[in-house]
Amino acid sequence: MRGLSFSSWPPTKLLLLLLLSLRPAWAPVPTGIAPSKPPGALKCPEACTCSVGGQANCSALGLLSVPAGLSRPVHTLLLDHNRLYTLPPVAFEGASALYLLDLRKNGLRSVDARAFWGLGALQLLDLSANQLETLAPGTFAPLRALRSLSLAGNRLALLEPAALGALPGLRALSLQDNALSALEPGLFAHLPALDALGLRGNPWVCGCALRPLCVWLRLHPRAPEAETLLCMSPGRLTLTPLTAFPDDAFRHCAKHLAARDLAVIYALGPLSFLASLATCLALGSAITACRARRRRRHHPAARRPPRPPDLAGPAAVSEPESEAAPPAQA
Ligand SMILES: *[C@@H]1O[C@H](CO)[C@@H](O)[C@H](O)[C@H]1NC(C)=O
User: What are the transmembrane regions (predicted)?
Assistant: First the structure.
């Protein structure tokens, strides 16, 4: 400890150096001498911790809204365990290269249909353990690069195909622990790459509405946990595995469809189209005829009032609107 004597020069220098190097830890560096960041450096939202790799860690900070200041270099945004109860339109503005977005456990109740606008590069989205009951049509439509979506642990009783839209690259969709009793017929139509579907913990009702799901399960025999999916109702089918229904089991559903719904579709569809077309045409021509007649009838009266004598001269005749007018008075 003798070396730390203040009377000798080198230790004092050392101490000074030490203090200087510690400085940023306890005093804010004046902006004037802050080292300038290279272009494209991660602009970290205040309150979050950012890493060079492009990760913004905003986990468990009690945040009530998405932090401002997101920038393009942010590739991973961890917002789990906060209090983002709603997501407004274009909620992640600036983070246009986002790859992973973690929104687990936020008490999320509503997501604006335009919340995910601008996230065309997003591949992994985790919305699990929230309180979503519905999702607006088009919510996930901008996420054209999405590969994995988790909606597990919400309160969804219905998942409209329009909410997902066409997601050509979606491989994994987790819907477990929701309130789903069936899946809509069109749900799988625009998810061609889907091969992992989490379905456990839903009150499946084994009726005609379950057909799309049973068809999908048959086409994907290696889907995880398929064997563990059980009907919750109706009574006589309770606890029957979903995979126990061959396509034959739905034959009566198909007939039902053909008999009534198809007739309605085939009859009403074209008829209503033709009817509305005819109505539009009739209305359009009536309006046009009326206008034309009125213009013809009122044209002389609609002309501008006669000018004072000093302005009404040969110049007035050369004006364009006077060409359809009755011959100028002599
Ligand atoms: C994010 O930060 C929290 C606390 O600030 C930490 O517990 C957690 O491990 C971090 N997550 C990652 C993936 O670095």
Answer: 263-287
Of 66, 30, 25, 23, nearest to 48 (Cα)? 66
The pLDDT confidence band at residue 129, using thresholds 50, 70 and 90, is very high
User: Strands, DSSP E only, in the chain?
Assistant: 49-50, 55-57, 76-78, 86-87, 100-102, 110-111, 124-126, 148-150, 172-174, 196-198
Say how many Å lie between the CA of residue 79 and the centre of ligand 1: 10
Distance 184 CA to ligand 1 centre (A): 38
Task: Give, using CA atoms, the residue closest to atom 4 of ligand 1.
Answer: 59
Dist CA 239 CA 235 (whole Å):
9
Q: Which one, of 144, 139, 138, lies nearest residue 120 by Cα?
A: 144
SS3 225: coil
Q: pTM (2 decimals)?
A: 0.66
Q: How many CA atoms lie within 13 A of 74 on its CB side?
A: 28
